[in-house]
Amino acid sequence: MKDSLVLTVPVFSMLANEAFRLRRAVFIDEQKVPEEEEFDAEDFTADHVVALGGGEVRGTLRIMLDDEHVKIGRVVVHRSWRGRGVASAMIRYAMEKHRDTRANRFFLTAQSDKLELYRPFGFLAFGEEFFDAGMPHRAMRNY
To answer: CB–CB of 73/109 below 8 Å?
Structure first.
């Protein structure tokens, strides 16, 4: 998205707080994910990516390094910016930033109705569908 700036922000920063506020609005308020499932200890060690534009956080995701791959998670875009390339810009940024990490192997779990978002980045679903926070998900990887 050409009018959004995508960058990594420190977990203890005003921009990370805005990212957490967006996650709360979408996952907890809109999608009814229980708060204790949304925020966890991994938030303290993850890289937090935000998409900024017009003085607001339009989207966020987090990146964690597992033993075998880079895990992308908590991908969320503000309702008014969905379908406008914000999520794709953040995923592209995250994969570019970590392309030399874990042999360029990425993993994520996606809500089943969002699988198409990740396919242009080489992600393929594998395994059985499962429920997370009451919503159907699929595991996806690009290797």
So the answer is: yes
Q: How far apart are CA 69 and CA 25, in angstroms?
A: 29
- What are the residues whose beta carbons fall under 8 Å from the beta carbon of 15, sequence distance 6 or more? 9, 50, 52, 57
Buried b or exposed e, range 85-117, using 16+ CB within 10 angstroms: bbbbbbbebbbebbeeebeeebbbbbeeeeeeb
Q: How far is C-alpha 46 from the geometric centre of its chain's CA atoms?
A: 11
Distance CA 16, CA 23 (A): 10
Q: Which residues pair with 19 in a beta bridge?
A: none
Q: Which is nearest to 121 in space by CA: 70, 60, 47, 66?
A: 70
**pLDDT 10s digits, 93-132:** 999 999 999 999 999 999 999 999 999 999 999 999 999 9
